[in-house]
Protein: 8-amino-7-ketopelargonate synthase
Amino acid sequence: MVNWNSLRDELEQAKQEGRYRPLTVWESRSGTWMTLNGRRLLQMSSNNYLGLTDHPDLKEAAIRAIEQYGVGSGSVRTITGTLDIHDRLEQELAQFKGTEAALVFQSGFTTNQGVLSSILGPDDVVISDELNHASIIDGIRLTKAHRKIFAHKDMDQLEAVLKESAGFKKRVVVTDGVFSMDGDIAPLPNIVELAEKYDAFVYVDDAHASGVLGKNGKGSTDHFGLHGRVHIQVGTLSKAVGAVGGYVACGQVLKDYLIHKARPFLFSTSQTPAVAATCLAAIQVLKQSDELIKKLWANASYFRSKVQELGFDTGGSETPIVPVIVGDPAKTMRFSDLLLEEGIFAQGIVYPTVAMDKGRVRFIVTAGHTQEDLDFALNALERAGKQLGLLG
Ligand SMILES: *Cc1c(COP(=O)(O)O)cnc(C)c1O
Structure:
């Protein structure tokens, strides 16, 4: 007789170590204030940076697309699943990012999987920042390429690795544009310079930079003025853009190659018409005005500086992702629980997601937060911090 005892044992152990996480089930739409178990909570853990999940233009575009195209696309992209709105979305994305072409996938996760697994072979080497996202790590695992990891943002190590990688056919340097746990920005100008010196490709994953960094949210390449010098720009349509999906902005050759090689593209059904239309509407919203992005950054600066003034450690944060580093995992989760009692949802992040002594409660500031919302959070942070002895 078969049974699930081994799985049960593992879950039991996770419970004993405080790592067991039941799902949090929300009773309201994504937004600044959300309902959980009948309570209104200030949301500070969502990637809905610009509040686009609830934008009237996006909702109207989705409804119109359903009426015109129905709810499903019917197949993978290579058979009958490329509707004119899918094609238009890729043209718009390429134009927005200033690249020759763009190719859309079902998510940012599958974009990394699809691109990395397609372009890397046994004669190649991939050089990856140690804090890169899980989807990059998984994408690399799907290849037979040699792997080299450099310490987070350590350009001396990157140069040393590039130097010793001269024998490989392709060298690809991969980095997150904005790192999701620390909210710091990759040193893209230095990476590009080193890559050019050692003939390597540059691959940046802008999941947390899409709609956040650069003019009108065009991403980290635009932020640093590196147009034409970053070969592969991955973005997500699931965070600031407010819907779901991922894309790669690149040259036409790479796009054509991926259409023939990338397995999530070839073997998984394309975005629903409503999603494609929503993303098209989101790009229009981004292009029309940078008001939301300005508000986002003003909120982020205000919140981060006030948190620092209170005496908390925000690590390397320089974006709307503001971690409050607590250290010990149990204390970190206690801090998050105290904030929840105060009416604030801010996720505790502990080992093994981050190092054992680097537990943190991660705040994500959005354009939708009002000054009152942020002050409400700051007051709660001060009380909870004093209660836990985190502040003097
Ligand atoms: C969130 C994230 C992804 C995954 O994007 P989805 O569209 O949610 O699948 C990929 N890379 C990074 C760096 C991310 O933060």
Summary: The mean pLDDT is 97. The longest strand covers residues 321-327. Residues 55-288 form a domain with the Aspartate Aminotransferase; domain 2 fold (CATH 3.40.640.10).
